[in-house]
Amino acid sequence: MNNDLAQTEALLTDLKNQKQSSQAEVMVAPAFTNLHRAFKDLKGTGVEVIAQNMHFAENGAYTGEISAAMLKSVGVKTVILGHSERRAYFHEDEALLAKKVDAALSNDMHVIFCFGEELNDRKSGKHFDVVASQISGSLFHLNANQWKSIVLAYEPVWAIGTGETALPEQAQEMHAFIRQTIADKYDETLAQSVSILYGGSVKPNNAQEIFSKPDVDGGLIGGASLNADDFFAIVNAF
Question: pTM score > 0.90 for this model?
Answer without folding.
Answer: yes
